[in-house]
Amino acid sequence: MIKQLSLAIGILAAIMPGASADPVRIRLSYIVPVSNWATILFAKPELAKHLGTSYAFEPILFQGTPMQIQAQAVGELEIANYGYTSFPIAILNAGLGDLRIIADEFQDGVADWYSDEFMVLKDSPIHTVEDLKGKVIGTNLKGSGVDIAMRAMLRKHHLDETKDVTIIEAATSTQPAMLMGHKVDIIPGVLPFSMDATVRDAARALFLQRDAMGITQMGMWVARTGFIEKNRAALVDFMEDALRAERWYLDPANHDEAVAIAVKVTKAPPERWQSWLFEKHGDYYRDPNGIPNIDALQSNIETVRDLGFIKSSIDVKKYVDLSLVEEATRRLK
Predict the structure, then answer these.
(1) What pTM, to 2 d.p., does this model score?
(2) What is the distance between the alpha carbons of residues 194 and 118, in angstroms, rounded to a whole number?
(3) Three-class SS of residue 303?
């Protein structure tokens, strides 16, 4: 009788909603600390009400997109932070047709928010895009988000990026020194590097990324359908906690504490963050409900195709599942 009762209790505990089980492992990729949510998302544990219960969270550093695609393909990454250039490549080239966009990371070019600045020296004779003919352009990586925007801007002004300019690849962190050392004539100014006081004293914006492409869906969270279907409840819990944390960071009342977290994560001084982090006109736009701009993304991908980086476009709406973040938003109301 005792054995039967113990067995019954064990079965009941296993099927009850509050039953203990191994938390679902969620690994989220990042490339740039702070600018990508993963590194600071749960710096305030009290905002993550489900962390350690229904899910376990792990931020994973990647040096570039190709490694993310490979990791997600073999099950070593649950949520990838793809941009508008990498997402279609993962589908068309890597054959990951089961990818689904589940949330926004950040957008460039939204009104009143930051847009990447393509910067020349203040005393440069370059005052129009046409003046770039014959000049040397710095970029972080061929086919990256800012690289595509730069090429699109050149095309708008009837310049051929393969003939009319010379393009040099270099790490984003080294490009300001290359500009000030006259090794290149223009660089993409991306956060947080473009807000460095030395850069702002020496350089000015020739044009903005929004001038080339309008709104750009620069980052988004992407998971595979099998993982979503198997772990929907845990993913909604994760999204609820993530949105709660993101809204905390976006609240101006928490600005100074958010800066302190950025300083702790990066070891960079407070002045590097104080004037712009999560602020209008200074930082990228992040949707407080986690909703990416799908129409902008479709247009962005068509630009990637037009520039020859992918052979065809995709119908983005076929690769979207916002049900998780929508349910999480309802919980927070």
Answers:
(1) 0.89
(2) 10
(3) helix
Nearest to 23, CA basis, from 60, 50, 43? 50
Q: Find the mean pLDDT for residues 13-25.
A: 61
Residue 203 to residue 182: CA distance in whole angstroms: 12
User: How far apart are alpha carbons 288 and 34 in whole angstroms?
Assistant: 17
Q: What is the mean pLDDT of residues 200-211?
A: 97
CATH topology for the 2-109+216-332 domain: D-Maltodextrin-Binding Protein; domain 2 (3.40.190)
CA distance 285 to 236: 23
Give the residue-averaged pLDDT of 1-14: 36
**CA distance linking residue 325 with residue 232, whole number of Å:** 11
Domain boundaries, the chain: 2-109+216-332, 117-213
Instruction: Locate 130 and state its tokens.
Output: 């046409």
Residue type, 24: V
Please write the tens of the pLDDT for every residue from 248-295: 999 999 999 999 999 999 999 999 999 999 999 999 999 999 999 999
Which run of H or E residues covers position 267?
none
Q: What is the DSSP letter of 126?
A: -
Q: What is the biggest distance separating any 2 CA atoms in the chain, rounded to whole angstroms? A: 91
Query: Domain 117-213 carries which CATH code?
Result: 3.40.190.10
Tell me, yes or no, if the two domains 2-109+216-332 and 117-213 fold the same way. yes
DSSP per-residue string spanning 144-177? SHHHHHHHHHHHHTT--TTTTSEEEE--GGGHHH
